[in-house]
Amino acid sequence: MCRGNRQAPVFRDARDNEIFLDTLGEACVRCGWRVHAFVLMGNHYHLLVETPESNLVAGMQWLQGTYTKRFNVRHKEWGHLFQGRYKALLVDRVGDYFSTVASYIHLNPARVRGFDFEGTRLEEHVWSSYPGMIQTKKRPEWLCVERVFGGAGLTDTPAGRRSYRSLMERRVLEMRHHSEPWKVDEAWSRIRRGWCFGDDGFRTEMLEHLDGTLKSKKRASFSGEEVRQHDEVEAERIVSLGMRALRVTEESLAGQIMGSPEKVALAWLVRKHTCVKNEWVKQRLKMGTATMLSESLRRIESARKGEWGYDEFQRIKSIKL
């Protein structure tokens, strides 16, 4: 989770919420993330994210940095939007810990002081994964629901979705009749204040991992050299697929000018689907350190039929990764 700088809103209106969720969907494609729950709350957000490729740091830098740029452009602002680094909590996938965190996220709107328990239903907060959990037509294509349902002993079926709704409605009812709704579940304080959420065995395992990391030569970056290497391996794979689609070889690519449409199209494909840095892209494609990459990417994206880069971009876009 992360809050706005100085508690300021990071979502001023519905369009900001839409932009953030669109950006989150892009992050899922780039990083291979699986989002299991989310809620946007005006001046902060919560995400339950699974990172199969161990690239949380790089992905979060891209997510928050990209959304900040889009927010600032839209509102004619500048500078930081979020209050620095996000807070991350390791969650045990065994048992009901996963579904407990998802419930914590989905019930966030009802924990806000002043929530109208009498006249408001939880699903009316549309900037949450909860409406998509109980109604498939409101579910983003990148939202994964099976593990949350499974942790609650349910399945993603009409009956399972009705049961999940009943479960959440019971929790809301408990909160309604509690003097301090934010304290209904004792697990919530562990989620808010802890660094990991699971049983004693899980905590011990995480401590051993952490101890090994801090003692290794790679302690300078908790994101890890492994993360960088993964992204570069994936980027290399995507470059190979792109070169095949464009019918170019390493030799022919090396002989092209730095800003050739083939090189720019390949750069677009890599930046679209990975978190590698621009420096890697430029070096790998021999585009030169001074290349105006962002401008070239915008130019090829907007090219019309018959214009520079149009044919190359269409071939690249059709690739199935």
What features would you describe in this structure?
The protein contains 15 helices and 5 strands. The chain has 321 residues and is mainly alpha-helical. The protein has 2 domains: 2-211, 2-Layer Sandwich (Alpha-Beta Plaits); 225-317. Strands 1-3-2 form a 3-stranded antiparallel β-sheet. A hairpin with a 3-residue loop joins β2 (34-40) and β3 (44-50). α10 (225-246) crosses α12. The longest helix has 22 residues, at 225-246. The chain is elongated, with a radius of gyration of 22 Å. The chain starts with a strand and ends with a helix. Residues 217-226 have low confidence and may be disordered.
Overall geometry: elongated
Low-confidence stretches: 217-226
Largest sheet: 3 strands, antiparallel
CATH topology of the largest domain: Alpha-Beta Plaits
- How big a fraction of the residues is strand? 5-15%
If you average the pLDDT, what whole number results? 89
Q: How does CATH name the architecture of the largest domain? A: 2-Layer Sandwich
* Largest sheet, spatial ordering of strands: 1-3-2
Q: N-to-C SSE series? A: EHEEHEHHHHHHEHHHHHHH
At the first level of CATH, the class of the largest domain is: Alpha Beta
Classify the oligomer. single chain
Number of distinct beta strands = 5
Radius of gyration, rounded?
A: 22 Å
Ends: how far apart? Answer: 30 Å
CATH superfamily of the largest domain, by name, is Transposase IS200-like
Structural class: mainly alpha
- Number of structural units classed as domains: 2
DSSP helix fraction: 40-55%
**What is the number of helices?**
15
